[in-house]
């Protein structure tokens, strides 16, 4: 299968890395068109995909991703549309447009998926929300889901909640990174070497997330399992509450979504 890609910035490059790592596509079957800053060229040197300057190779692609900035996505789709073949699946991970708006600038036979991934797709551990055009046949939808699942977990959602989904799944990695950095700073403050502090916090987060997913236990129940009466963890919990931890996190989601 040939896959086309428009835009190899933060999200585009994360997806390209994930697709190649999962062997969903081989480098010689992945056709990437970048912008003007040289980012795509630098990535091509690292990953060896086919760097293209025009949309001609898209005629051979079954799936085409677009990962450009929100303001230019429809204009670029208009330019690329003549090079998409009948029954191409177009997966837009760009914000700022709807499936209907994309369909309006594309040929009617092109199937449109609007997906919002997050950067962990680069290590095939993404969380991807996907909305599908109403008229998409089931086998086409399955094909799109199959490709997206090679990048992480996929949840089908209606397009009207895709924005908020993107805030929680797409912005939160930055919140978690800050939390991880702060935890590591705390560890350093208490005398643990810097590199070891990052390793401890990252592995702890991975393990906590895995436990939550696999046990399906409520987060409160998992927290209760760590907080023994009069113990050190509950003292730390009180310090977090005193400093408005929950409010800060909820407000971060609200502000990011506004
Ligand atoms: N970052 C995330 O975590 C995330 C999560 C979910 C969704 N998204 C959405 O994904 C889209 C991309 O976000 P991003 O963070 O990856 O932005 P970005 O880093 O700015 O990447 C956008 C890329 O589009 C390229 N581009 C511009 N014009 C182009 C053209 N005519 N042909 C091909 N490529 C072109 C740019 O290339 P040059 O710079 O070389 O010109 C740039 O590398 C946005 O709509 C964003 O809302 C992002």
Automatic annotation (TrEMBL):
Membrane spanning residue stretches:
none
Residues annotated for NADP(+) binding in this entry: 6-11
Q: Which Gene3D superfamilies match?
A: NAD(P)-binding Rossmann-like Domain (3.40.50.720), ProC C-terminal domain-like (1.10.3730.10)
Q: Does the keyword Amino-acid biosynthesis apply?
A: yes
Keywords (alphabetical) are:
Amino-acid biosynthesis, Cytoplasm, NADP, Oxidoreductase, Proline biosynthesis
**Coiled-coil intervals:** none
Catalytic reactions on record: L-proline + NAD(+) = (S)-1-pyrroline-5-carboxylate + NADH + 2 H(+); L-proline + NADP(+) = (S)-1-pyrroline-5-carboxylate + NADPH + 2 H(+)
Q: Describe the location of the Pyrroline-5-carboxylate reductase dimerisation domain by residue ranges.
A: 161-256
Q: What Enzyme Commission number does this protein have?
A: 1.5.1.2
Any one GO MF term held by the record is: pyrroline-5-carboxylate reductase activity
Q: Where in the cell is it found?
A: Cytoplasm
Residues forming the Pyrroline-5-carboxylate reductase catalytic N-terminal domain are: 3-95
Gene Ontology CC entries for this record: cytoplasm
Listed under GO biological process in this entry are: L-proline biosynthetic process
Question: What is the stated purpose of this protein?
Answer: Catalyzes the reduction of 1-pyrroline-5-carboxylate (PCA) to L-proline.
Q: Which family does it belong to?
A: Belongs to the pyrroline-5-carboxylate reductase family.
Q: HAMAP family, alphabetically?
A: P5C_reductase (MF_01925)
Q: What is this protein called?
A: Pyrroline-5-carboxylate reductase
